[in-house]
From TrEMBL:
One of its GO terms (molecular function) is DNA binding. It comes from the Bacteria. The keyword tRNA-binding does not apply. Signal peptide: none annotated. Residues 1-89 form the HTH arsR-type domain. NCBIfam families: HTH_metalloreg, repress_SdpR. It comes from Anoxybacteroides rupiense. This is Autorepressor SdpR family transcription factor. PANTHER family: TRANSCRIPTIONAL REGULATOR, ARSR FAMILY, TRANSCRIPTIONAL REPRESSOR SDPR.
């Protein structure tokens, strides 16, 4: 996981909204798209960026692909933030 990719991915408000939706549970791309006024290919593009940043995982169930949060990456990010503020941003 690259912090740069993760930060780039969450910099976009649409992707942050997708992450918020997934926080409530796994969803298909169609279910995610139903919350936005954009074409499904645009939603797929955002999901691809979130997957590349390892913030989202997918799994196939029959004909559907379900997307879920990769909580491990969020834990890594939170740990980095905690260390950053705990050390006063001075580094090690």
């Amino acid at each position: 996981m690259s912090f740069n990719e993760a930060f780039k991915a969450i910099a976009d408000p649409t992707r942050r909204q997708i992450l918020t939706l997934l926080r409530k549970g796994d969803l298909t791309a169609g279910e995610i798209a139903s919350h936005f006024e954009m074409q499904k290919p645009s939603v797929s593009h955002h999901l691809k960026i979130l997957k590349q940043a390892d913030l989202v995982q997918d799994r196939r169930v029959g004909q559907h692909i379900y997307y879920s949060l990769n909580t491990t990456v969020f834990q890594d990010l939170m740990s980095w933030f905690y260390d950053f503020f705990d050390k006063g941003g001075k580094g090690s």
